[in-house]
Amino acid sequence: MKLESRLWLRALYARMWVRVMSVFNEPLWIAVNIGFPFFSSVGLGLLYASTGLRSFVGFAILGGIMISFWGNVLWSMASQFYWDKQVGLFEVYLTSPAPMTAILVGMSLGGVVNTVPSAVLVAVAGWLFFAPPLSPSWLAVGLTFALTLASLYAMGMMLSSLYLAYGREAESINEALHEPVSLLSGVYFPSIGNFSPFPFSVQVFASLIPLTIGMDALRRALFFSQGLSSIYLHLIALSVMGGALLLLASKTMKLLEQKGRREGTISVRLR
Amino acid sequence: MLSHELELRVEVQNLRREFDSKEKKVVALNGVSLKVREGEIFGVLGPNGAGKTTLIRILSTLLLPTSGVARVMGFDVASEPEKVRAVINMASGSERAGYDYISARGNLWFFSQLYGLPSEVAKARIKRLSQLLGLDDYLDRKFYMLSTGYRQRVTIARAFINDPKIVFLDEPTIGLDVMTAMSIREFLIKEAKENGRTIFLATHNMAEVDAICNRVAIIDRGRILTSDTPTNLKRSLGAPALVMEVSPLPVNLAFLNAVEGVKGFTTSVDEERGLARVQVVVESEECVTRALAGVAASGMRLVSSWRQQTTLEEVFVSLVGRGFVEREHEVGE
Question: What ipTM was predicted for this assembly?
Fold first, then answer.
């Protein structure tokens, strides 16, 4: 194997390992990660069940699973480099030969692993409490889930690069993005298609968010047995979005690194 | 081996770096040139705001120069950063670069992977570095549980984990207790001597430079004022410094500027004893007599006076006319 590929893989694995171990060495973090999506989906599940919308109960549980990943992308991916910059870790990355794409992909894979316990708990508890009606096409579900995560974390990488340009505003940006994206992407209810409560223009805008496309495809595949032939446009859209965001993240990172070297903003940190 | 036969590791020519602030353009480096060779511990000494950190950031590829050339191992830091990064490492005394919930060992392993080290090699290096830095018993503690001193030892170990040819250190012992600082200095000397590593040290700690540096460049307001071995720099002053304790407070020492042979002076006030301690850099013995006579002529009382072995502080005073602390206040203003 070429030297560059070895370095890329080692850096990726190491960054993933650090992310996973950091969370699993601090049990409180696991509890925090599980708490929010679990209680939100149970709450909505109870509401849907009590109002007779039984088919929507499954949407609430699926939403709880996917919101865990969205929260992880926003809070642990997007603003990570900002925090790394504050303590001097970003300088360590930059002055090493490790490719920044390896660090970003490692961070993403670590984030996925860290979020799995929360997603599994919501899925198991939801199924035990509510036993929602399922009519799955498992191949389509698996492929959609993988592509949704890929494009979601590609978006995280893109945001991560952009956040380098920000200072303390990073946290406010997260706050500002979290709820609107959750609403528009229809995590707990269909936000695009025939059952959407939004006007067409909002649906078009919402479709630019990978999570929206992923949620719609997952609902179709999990609850309405739609196979690959029915949701292939969703899958193409997710692949294109993921690829484009990955490319954009890599370009943005290079551009911002160069800008930081020119303007002297890479090493600004809290003392 | 003659010094010019040793490999040239760092070469800087007429380096300039400007920063744009809202009010004005700040010149952090103004025409800096220097050469550093294999196995040297090279100190850049200057007060806060002199341009030391800017120089280190340029050499370690974190910052681009406005003009001039900087080469590390022959690679241009501006156009070939990837090649530079493969042979250097850096650490700063003000960083806290480590993951809190990972052990010191885990952190060091992680950093080794950023250089693509096979795990076995990384483990052997961690073992060696931790022995040299007295970290053995702390390797399995989580990073946040380590004291400042041990965290800094981890940081120093990190800076050597990739077996770099050149290590850039920015105030590596700042805020550390005497014993920790001493053990880090011993480690640096050993690394330079035994492994031929070049250590580029930016600091405002004169005792540190005196203790470990083969050569030192004194920098102020972005310019290198002089560069030589610490011994030669101190020797260049000729006579030992004069220290006078004068009272009553406040003292007016303006007369010293007019005394022939006085190269500069620094003052510190001892409120408790009601006197000022004045350190005067003198050119010759005759100048000492004139300075002491000037105290009486100015209506002040000379409480005591003595001669003091020349330090790098006096070298700085002789070049700038002010001490480090006064200069830092000026820069701050």
Answer: 0.87
Position B105: which residue type? R
Closest to B110 (Cβ–Cβ): which among A14, A26, A269? A14
Q: CA–CA separation, A217 vs B206, rounded Å?
A: 67
d(CA A43, CA A47): 6
pLDDT in tens, B134-160: 999 999 999 999 998 999 999 999 999
Q: Cβ atoms within 10 A of the Cβ of B10, count?
A: 22
Identify residue B290 by its one-letter amino acid code.
R
**What length does chain A have?**
271
Q: Which residues of B touch A (CB under 8 A)?
A: 19, 54, 57, 60-64, 82, 85-86, 88-90, 92, 94-102, 106, 109-111, 113-117, 142, 158, 162
Residue of B19, B85, B94 with shortest CB distance to A95: B85
Beta strand B215-220 with B198-203 is: unpaired
Query: Which residue's entry shows tokens 């504050």?
Result: A86
Radius of gyration of chain B (CA): 22
DSSP assignments along B177-200, one per residue: -HHHHHHHHHHHHHHHHHH--EEE
Taking CB atoms within 8 Å and a gap of at least 24, the contacts of B147-150 are B148/B175, B148/B176, B149/B176, B149/B177, B149/B180, B150/B104
- Beta carbons within 10 angstroms of residue B248's beta carbon: 12
Residues from chain A that touch B106, judged by Cβ atoms under 8 A, are: 18, 21
Q: pLDDT band for position A88 (50/70/90)?
A: confident
Ordered domains of chain B (ranges, CATH): 8-233 (3.40.50.300), 235-332 (3.30.70.260)
**A254, A240, A219, A205: which is closest to A101 by C-alpha?**
A254
Query: Contact B106/A14 with Cβ under 8 angstroms?
Result: no
Residue B52 and residue B44 in contact, taking contact as beta carbons nearer than 8 Å: yes
Concatenate the DSSP letters of all residues of A69-108 into one string: HHHHIIIIIITHHHHHHHHTHHHHHHTSS--HHHHHHHHH
> Which of A13, A104, A267 best probes binding to B when mutated, by most B CB atoms within 10 angstroms?
A267
pLDDT at A71: 86
Nearest CA to CA, how far is B37 from chain A (Å)?
A: 21
Check the CA dihedral A175-A178-A183-A189 and report its sign: negative
Residue A262 token pair: 């020119």
In 3D space, the residue among A162, A11, A167 whose CA is nearest the CA of residue A74 turns out to be A162
CB–CB contacts below 8 A, A to B: 98
Q: Would you say B36 and B12 are in contact if contact means Cβ atoms under 8 Å apart?
A: no
| pLDDT of res. A160 | 83
Instruction: State how far Cα B10 lies from the chain centre.
Output: 17
CB half-sphere exposure, B271, CA atoms < 13 A: 0
Nearest to A226 by CA among A134, A151, A148: A134
Domain definitions of chain A by residue range: 3-263
Token pair, residue B8, equals 């040239």
pLDDT category of residue B261 using cuts at 50, 70 and 90: confident
CB contact under 8 A, A17 and B110: yes
